[in-house]
Structures are given as C-alpha cells and as structure tokens.
Amino acid sequence: MIRALSIILCLALAPLPAAAHKVIASAFPSGDAIEGEVGFSSGDMVANLLVEVFDGAGTKLGEAMTDADGFFTYVPTEPVRHIFRADLGAGHVAEFEMAAEDVAAILGSPATGAAPAPTEPAAAAPLAGLSDADRAAIAAIMRDEMRPLRRELAAYKEHHDIQTVLGGIGYIAGLFGLGFYFAARRRLAG
Hints:
By secondary structure, the chain is of the alpha+beta class. It has four helices and seven strands; from the N terminus they run αβββββββααα.
C-alpha cells in the first residue's frame, strides 16, 4: 500500500510539459501577389512584424511587414521557391514556404528549371463573362472571407489538442480512484 502511495505521489509531483501556444504561418497566392499570415494558434496575430523572403539557396529576395491583423502581402519577381522567415521573439520563429511552381503561376511564367504546366481551359469557362475588374473583386472578397476561417481553424486545432490531453489525464485519475476504492473495500471486508 505504501509503495502504491509513493508511486502516485511521485507521478503527481512529476513535472509536466508546458502547454504553450504554437506559431501559425502560411502563404497563399493572391492575384499577382503572395499573401500570408503570421500569429499564434490561440488566434492572436502578430502586428508590425518583419517577414523576410529568401530563395531556396538562402539569397534574400525581399521583405514585407504584417498589418494589424497579422497579414502581409509580397509581390514576387522571380519564379523560384520562396521561403518566408519571421522572428516573433521568445524563441518563436516562423518559417514557411511557397513552391516555385506556385510562384510561377502567380507570375504567369514557368518555374525555373521546370517545364511549362498544361493549361486547363475548362476552369476559366465559368468566369468567361466577367471582366478583369470583376474577377479581381471576387478574388478579394474570397480572400477576406477566408482569413477568419483560417484563424478559427488553427485555434480550434489547438483547443482540441489540449482538451484531449486533459481528458486523458482525467481518465487516468479516475482509474486510479477506482483502484483505490476497490482496494479499500477489499481491506475492510477482510
């Protein structure tokens, strides 16, 4: 019995890993530019943050600043892989990338060292009757609507992970409680 109590005491006093927030960062095509976001999985976005842009070889291509909502826009000039880096402080560094093929599609040219991609005329058919201004307006509306959804999805994933861990700890504590209950009943009966 004393052995079991000492094991439980050791487990209860053992240091647990801290449940910290994670850095979320992503980049996606946005018309003739690359739009991205930088923040934390809690939903807090980082404002006025310098985002540096590098190619695959580590050469700096440029930089961008996040706005008050943690979003930035960068206009690419070369159809190469773009690596985005942002130092959020306190050991948090965001590093994410966009493939050369995606950048080439933004620029309307083939990626460096890649064969030209086949075009899909059927994809443009639903938008054939729209002017370029209408297409740009629709794209802007879609980007604005997608921003909060991305943020909410990242926050949901973080919340769900913590909830799962705490639920597992609760089940373990409950099983220990049942074990002690049955042990005490056995001791009182005998």
